[in-house]
Amino acid sequence: MGAGLCAAGTVVMALTALATREDVHYDDFGSTMTALAGQLGGLTLLLGLGPFVAWLLRAAERHAVRLPGPLRLTAHGLGDRRGRTAAGVTITMTGTAVAVATMIIASGVTAMDRAEYVPQARSGALHVKIFTAERGPAARATLRQELPAVPLIDHYRENGLLYVDVPGSWMTYKSHIGDQALLRYLTADPATPYDEGTAVVITSDDIGATSVRLRYSPTVTSSSLTEKVFPAITVKAPGPGAEGVFVPAKAVQSLGLQLEPDEFIVDPSLHRTSPAEQERISDRLGKDATTYVERGFQAPAGWIPFATVTALFALGGALVATWQPSSGSRSRRVLLRLGARSSAHWLIASRTAFRAACGTVSGVAAGCLIGLLLVWPMTASIAWDPVPRPDFVVSWPPIAALAAGLPMLTVLITTFASPGRGFPDTRAALGSPAGQEPEPGDRGATA
User: Fold this and answer.
1) What is the distance between the alpha carbons of residues 6 and 299, in angstroms, rounded to a whole number?
2) Is the pLDDT of residue 431 over 50?
3) Which range (227-231, 384-388, 430-434) has the least confidence?
4) C-alpha–C-alpha distance, residues 309 and 170, integer Å
5) Hey, how many other C-beta atoms are within 10 angstroms of the C-beta on 114?
6) How buried is residue 377: exposed, middle or buried, by Cβ count under 10 Å (0-12/13-18/19+)?
7) Helices 303-322 and 396-412 meet at what angle, rounded to 10?
8) 212 near 201, Cβ under 8 Å?
């Protein structure tokens, strides 16, 4: 049963990986269902590994008679009838596998997000988006109080319909309506010529546009649009995501369109807004507006708490697998009767490390398989112009640290956190009254 579940889960994950390896457009529903199928395949694999762990522990104990004495004692008790060891090792394997798969998938998703990231503004610029025109004065007053000496750039929106078309280009450009200060911010060049009757095409393409076509209507419910051609010049966009068409505010007003405040912008060449300033402004604005500061790509860190919790879950399983009743095992009592207390400590440490390593090693292997297969459907692009996938670089040092550190931490907890656990008093273990030593004959019989 376990082998069948493992095979089925692996096949499902492999099929989802093969189906999403190409850098093509995937629709939202299809990519979501493919990723869900892959996750179910990974869960099926983990379910199949449960019976495998129990079989592995029984096989290890059965063949332990061929090992040297110390290793034979270490493997003794792996296949206990109550199943505590198998349950603990299975928990350790599951938690480790989920943590490792999360680290691998998070690394791939972060690399893909970084490749797809497009800045929304110039680096360091503060954008304050106004929800309604009525809240514009209050938002401006707040900014004046928080940034009294910093010039504000007005970005307007039309109270109607306005579409901007650039002849010779297939791209749909966003329109920017404002004055000369806005133009200088958009182009990042104070020398850009400004004319109230001339539009400016900001693009990274070599199109050389000399005019733009405006299609507009004073009301949003109008079924017909009026067209007008404006002269234009073309300038190079200062960076990715900066493409657009600047239209002077007076030129738009000449069409009969009413303007209202859309954004207040702080030019980063004049003032770079700090995180503390942004937080303070955002708290004061409340529901009047939203703030955004372009700081480049920020790697998501939400997966770190989840991976930490699953690693702690694995540690708990390792402690369950190594727990022994207070009376201790027979081999431990033998060592105690012989006075070999250091050997008994070594026995506990070796058993603890071996049982924790059984779950950790199998969990790392399963987690690497799951992560390396699921990273493909989890990074499938839903953009019409998908970005080629970057090379997925797996961060092996944290995985190696988890594989080696979890057994070591388990040994430290079981040995030092509760040093007396499983070490009853030697005289109590012998059943001798306090203050009496065991008879030499008893010691020989025990040996």
Assistant:
1) 33
2) no
3) 430-434
4) 49
5) 14
6) buried
7) 40
8) yes
Tokens of 291: 């703030």
Encode 226-293 in three state secondary structure: EEEEEEEEEEECCCCCCCEEEEEHHHHHCCCCCEEEEEEEECCCCCCCCHHHHHHHHHHHCCCEEEEE
Encode pLDDT of 53-72 as tens digits. 777 777 766 666 565 555 55
d(CA 203, CA 207): 8
- Which H helix or E strand runs over 279? helix 275-285
| Mean pLDDT, residues 279-288 | 89
For residue 23 the two structure tokens come to: 């850098």
- Dump strand ranges (E) for 285-380: 289-293
For 68-115, write each residue's pLDDT tens digit.
555 555 555 555 555 577 788 889 999 999 999 999 999 999 999 998
Q: Kind and range of the H or E element at 217? A: strand 211-217
Is 50 exceeded by the pLDDT of residue 426? no
User: How far is residue 233's CA from residue 69's CA, in Å, rounded to a whole number?
Assistant: 87
Whole-number Å distance between alpha carbons of 248 and 176: 8
d(CA 121, CA 242): 7
Mean pLDDT value across the chain = 81
